[in-house]
Amino acid sequence: xxxxxxxxxxxxxxxxxxxxxxxxxxxxxxxxxxxxxxxxxxxxxxxxxxxxxxxxxxxxxxxxxxxxxxxxxxxxxxxxxxxxxxxxxxxxxxxxxxxxxxxxxxxxxxxxxxxxxxxxxxxxxxxxxxxxxxxxxxxxxxxxxxxxxxxxxxxxxxxxxxxxxxxxxxxxxxxxxxxxxxxxxxxxxxxxxxxxxxxxxxxxxxxxxxxxxxxxxxxxxxxxxxxxxxxxxxxxxxxxxxxxxxxxxxxxxxxxxxxxxxxxxxxxxxxxxxxxxxxxxxxxxxxxxxxxxxxxxxxxxxxxxxxxxxxxxxxxxxxxxxxxxxxxxxxxxxxxxxxxxxxxxxxxxxxx
Length: 352
Prior knowledge:
The protein is built from 15 helices and 9 strands. The model has no long low-confidence stretch (mean pLDDT 96). The longest helix has 25 residues, at 177-201. With 352 residues, it is of the alpha/beta class. It has a 7-stranded parallel sheet. Strand 6, helix 12 and strand 7 (264-266) form a beta-alpha-beta unit.
């Protein structure tokens, strides 16, 4: 699904995201702005997580930090998938992951959720986007906005905090499916408004994070995940930005994910891109180096990156990790990875 306004002078990331089989794979990394960078830790020492997210100047600075170190092809806004939820009337704390003091499990709680207008949903995010775009003006770097998928947001709201297998939420889907659908409908509209706000502020692509979709069997995902993701992504059609969908540990759902109206699918490290490509012949694939590889010696990073790059041949590919950068990753290892990807000519290599 190519964008007719994309030209050879457009950022490489956008060209690939729109479906161009580019000569070099564009590169960005999930959680590329974060705890592995000493300059991020310096800010974290004087500001809480919410202060960093809710202060546009700090969020913009953190977003740009990895771009000052590495010649990456895209920046992703520093924020969190839980950011729009306080505007619904749900207090969110981080300790260190998201915590909902009163999990949502009753009709009264769901009815109390308000649906804020777009300008009420985290206005500091829109300002941070504008600041980043100002800094990136004239540079071949695209800015990615993002949101959590309705099913993943519901997982946290019902469970209350992180859990290994989110048993309370999975039980809730069976015990109170009518409440689950009410919650998912509200979260879907919130997510649409939130992403549209980011696009209007200047986000040039958006990624929908469905971090916990892989917890569910295909029938459950078909009922509680697929229709709401389809609605979110369909609502963004025609806005001039490529749409990326990420589900972790979800290879058993690929036949269903292929039904989503998006331009790119981000793939975790559990299957090679060559194995995944047949499920998504009309999509750009994004990924999928195991983040743990960046803890290995440089020669191993080179070897494993080449495997991913060769597996990504045969269609459009955006190089990324299969999940976020690990906190203990040495920044010099990221620099080496970027160099390896930049040196790989996709048009002169044979597929894996």
